[in-house]
Amino acid sequence: MNKNDQEQTPSTSEKLWKATRHTFSAATFKANQYKQVVQKKIDLGAVHRKIDHLHSELGKQIDDCRAAGHSQILERDDVVQILHKLDSLKKAAALLEEEIESIRTELPPEDQDSAEQAEDIEPETETETDEQKRTDRESE
Length: 140
Prior knowledge:
Radius of gyration: 28 Å
Order of helices and strands: HHHH
Strand content: under 5%
Largest sheet: none
Number of strands: 0
Structural class: mainly alpha
Number of helices: 4
């Protein structure tokens, strides 16, 4: 081995290590992102079940009032309370849906050095699938 080979070997190893760290970081980010989306969807499902329950409660309350001969059913306090609960739950559901969408569109934090190093590692040997994956990540 000549002097140039010895100097180049640590540089290549360092580049590979940085690329590996970058890949691991991106994978960890995606896993955490998926976990957050799943948790928000669970919360959203719970909110939708509460909304469904309030809908049936509202229908029962309106039917009971109508059967009892009450006038101005929609202005009764118990009906108005249910409607207010429905409004707040619908707002909560909309907020959760927005949060899910924002989590999905989040991009992993890019380390400039890692990105440059990953590009320095023989870009001409990049396969078509690697190029497609990179393009997909950039478009997400």
